[in-house]
Design a protein that fits this description.
The chain has 251 residues and is α/β, with parallel strands linked by helices. It contains eight helices and ten strands.
């Protein structure tokens, strides 16, 4: 075994899960990042039209995902390294889980005695194992990685308290949040001037799941984009056009 002295992490890449209610801006938040490639699992990119004049500046590439094989092909492409992409966005994990379950239910190897529309316990187990592998291999790519997910309220079996976590099965939600450095809860609230503000919670508060392993984000950010988090953690330069985009989005 190789033993080494601990030293500061250099050229670090940020791995994060961003969860929130539908329509709160997770895709838009994630897409304003260094050289992004977006795995479009949900088929909903209309929100990016509001920053259409900045598409060339952001240089967003999109891959439409309709199967687990598509994701595997994307992973092999990115792992090969013959590209200029710096940020991967999986939009969203919930849709990836649904695609995976649909494929399991339609598999010719599945026991024909089971209802083809009703998942059994072993189907959930198979899908859980597949999700574990997918999330880990994408997380380990040498680039910034952002997983988006809708939020859901879940009751803690031991305490009875409600928790707001990514809308995955309880086991996968817990594991995925453990795999990454940042878990952010994105929401919209009224600011001091009465205007709506998009906020990102980066520390656990009440029932909301969030975390920040870097210790550089504080409790949260107001009207953030992915570039802001990556800058605060790695010190990367934020292009001037990003501020213009943020003002446009706020309007």
């Amino acid at each position: 075994m190789k033993i080494r002295r601990l030293s500061p992490v250099s050229d670090s890449k940020v791995k994060m899960v961003i969860h929130g209610d539908p329509g709160v801006g997770k895709t838009l938040f994630s897409s304003i990042a260094p050289k992004p490639i977006l795995a479009n699992c949900e088929g909903g990119l209309l929100c990016l039209d509001q920053i259409a004049e900045y598409h060339a500046d952001l240089d967003i590439q999109v891959v439409d995902i309709s199967s687990i094989a598509d994701l595997q092909e994307l992973f092999l492409y990115l792992k090969k390294g013959e590209h200029d992409r710096e940020t991967l966005i999986i939009d969203s994990l919930g849709e990836v889980m649904r695609i995976g379950m649909d494929e399991i239910l339609k598999s010719p190897n599945r026991d024909s005695r089971y209802d083809p529309d009703t998942p059994m316990l072993q189907d959930y187990g198979q899908n859980t194992q597949r999700m574990r592998k997918l999330v880990r291999v994408f997380r380990d790519l040498p680039m910034h990685v952002i997983f988006t997910c809708i939020s859901q309220e879940q009751k803690d079996d031991q305490t009875g308290r409600l928790k707001t976590i990514p809308a995955l099965t309880p086991k996968i939600a817990s594991e995925v949040m453990g795999y990454v450095d940042i878990v952010g809860y994105l929401f919209v609230a009224e600011g001091n001037d009465g205007e709506s503000e998009r906020k990102l919670l980066t520390q656990p508060k009440g029932k909301y799941a969030a975390k920040d392993r870097s210790g550089k984000l504080g409790v949260g950010l107001v009207d953030p984009v992915a570039y802001d988090l990556i800058n605060m953690i790695t010190g990367c330069e934020i292009p001037e056009y990003v501020q213009k985009i943020k003002l446009e989005v706020k309007k």
